[in-house]
Amino acid sequence: MTEKNTKTVEKIAVKKKCGIIMPIASNPDYPNEHWKEVLLILSEAISQTEFEPRLVSDDVAIGLIHDRIVNNIYSDDIVVCDVSSKNPNVMFELGMRLAFDKPTIIIKDEKTGYSFDTGVIEHINYPSSLRFNQIVEFKLELIKRINATYEKSQSEPNYSPFLKSFGKTIVPAAINQTEIPESKFIISQLESLTNEMHLMRVNQNGRNENYTKRKYDIILNEKDRKDYINSSISKFIKINNHLKYEDFTSENFLPFLRDQITNDANFVPSSLEIKNSLNQYFARNNVDLK
């Protein structure tokens, strides 16, 4: 083998990995070949960086598929996760990656709302139609974000894309050989994801007539509308009590709260209604809003 060929082989061997977490199975809300096209788009964009794209389920070695997925989710240098359609398996795998607190980029289409646990993380949007001009812009943005995110993870000693939101007491999970150490944080995250998967299955299978009727009745008068917004805001704040008032009222977070209430109650609250509800909650709990 020539010296030139040897150098080429060495260069290929050390290329960093960019894992891809995304839906694979067909979905009635999307065309049959939709996810294959999305995977091709992601692979083309990632290949223009220093990373080699691969699904986290891919591996040249033969072994248990779950063991392979978990190890790739942990060891890949950076991961791009497509949460479009809120596929339960995708949300579960994303939860593991965030527990490891390693470089992660979340993307979604415009048809998909935000989720409670990941809403504080900036998402890159792409059109579900996969129209050429918009996809070109999306790929450029994704390339830029991959490079910037990985560079930041390498240059900052205390880099933390997710766990920093929970304070300094949370330590990222790690894998020792093929075992994942048990920790209260991972267990709580998995329980949360399990609950979310159950709710998504309920939504997909359809809700019973009485629940649907009650859901629509909520929006019939202003008082019920206000009470429902207050109740939703109160529950969300209690679940995410690590966040501050400024986080809840930020321009990035308000659309996320609006999506959650819309999905639950079938009406769209205004930003003013949400802000008023937040102000009332924090005022009742003696929190300085200045």
TrEMBL record:
GO terms, molecular function: helicase activity
Keywords in alphabetical order: ATP-binding, Helicase, Hydrolase, Nucleotide-binding
Domain of life: Bacteria
Protein name: RNA helicase
